[in-house]
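User: What would this chain look like folded?
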Amino acid sequence: MRLPFGPWLRARRRGRGLTVRAAADLAGISPGFLSMLENGTRRLNRHRDIVALAGVLRVSEAELVEFEANEPECLKLGA
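Assistant: Here's the prediction, encoded as structure tokens.
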């Protein structure tokens, strides 16, 4: 069974030994935005953010986009 996007993202970040703040700083995004991604209340839809997070997490941009795109709609909306 595959993890939902938020927990997967959190696991990748932690696997790299990064705090939310450190990963966000490296990606050039706010810690709050990264936290919302990990909690499923925000979507990852800006190309710049995708490229930056993929680099920080050491995953391909395609993998990051595919993982997020397969998230059920109810989770993407934070419902």
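The two ends are 22 Å apart (CA to CA). If you want, I can go into more detail on any region.
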